[in-house]
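User: Some background: our group keeps a shared notebook of sequences we're curious about, and every so often someone picks one and asks for a predicted structure to add to the entry. Today it's my turn. The entry only has the sequence so far, pasted here. Could you supply the structure so I can complete it?
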Amino acid sequence: MTDGMAMPSSLLAFVTTIHAALVILRLHRGRMPGVLLLALPSTAFAAMTWALPGAGGIAAGLVMHLVWFLVCERLVPWSASVPTRNVPGAAAARVETQPAGSTSAAQARHPVAAFVQVPVLAVLEETPRVRTFRMARPSDFKFKAGQFLAVRVQADGRPLTRCYSVSSAPESGYLEISVRRQGVVSNLLHSTIRPGGMLHIRRPAGPFVYPEADDRPLVLVAGGIGITPLLSMIRHAVAADPLRPVTLIYSVRSHSDLAFADELSLISRRHRQAHIVVTVTNDASVDLYRRGRVDAAL
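Assistant: Of course. Here's the predicted structure to add to the notebook entry:
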C-alpha cells in the first residue's frame, strides 16, 4: 500500500540513510543493557520509507522517528564517559597531569602500565658520560633489586620511551637510574633534566632480580654501564642480606669509564662479606686496579 505518488528510489535511499544514522546515534549515546530494544522501533521507522514511499509516508516516518529519538533521550541519557577503570589509558593521563607533590592517593590507584610524573631530586655526575638521576619514589612503587623502569620523554613532539635499570636499592626512599649518554633519549636526559624537573616513569618490572632465600655466595659480573642493575643488587645485599658473601667483578675500558668508584670502595671497606674487583682493559696508565679482561685466571 502507498500514500500517493511514490518518490524516486534515490530519495528513498537518502531518507533511509537518515534513519540509519539516527539508529547508530541512538546505539552510541545509550550505553546500558536494553538499549538494543529501544533501537527496534527505529528500524521499523526506516522500513516505513519503503512500505509507504509517498511523501506523506516518508514525512510521517521521519517525524515519528525524531519523536522516538527524543523519548529515548529521556529514558536513556547520554553517557558521555566510561568509568576510568575500564579504559587502560585514562588513569595514565590523569596521573601525568596532576600537580607535582600530589602523588600518594592518586598514584595508588593507577594501573601497572600507567606512567607517573615524579620530581627529580638530584642529578649526579658519575663519569663524563654517565649521570645518575635521583627521583622521588611513589609510595606504591615496590621493586626488586635488578629490575628496570621505563622513562617517557618528548622529542621533537614525539613521545619516546626507553627502559633503564634501577641502580638504587629497594631499601632507598627514592629511585635512581644511571644513564650513559649514547642515544636520543639519553642525550635528552643529560642535556635537559635538572633537579626540580619532572620525569614520566612507569613502575619497575623485569625478571632479572636478586636471588633471595639463597645463602650461597653470590658473584656478580658487570661490564661498563651494565653495572647498574648489579649496583642495585650489591647495595641490597649489604643492607638486607649482610651474612651472605657477595663478589662484584666490574670491567671497564678505561679509568674514565669507572662509575661509582668511591661508593664501591666504601662498600668493600665497611662490609667484610663484600668483595669488589675492578679490572681495566685499555688503560695502561692505571695502577690502582687490575689490568686486562675478565678471564679464567681472574
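Suggested note for the entry: The two ends are 99 Å apart (CA to CA). Residues 9-75 form one domain.
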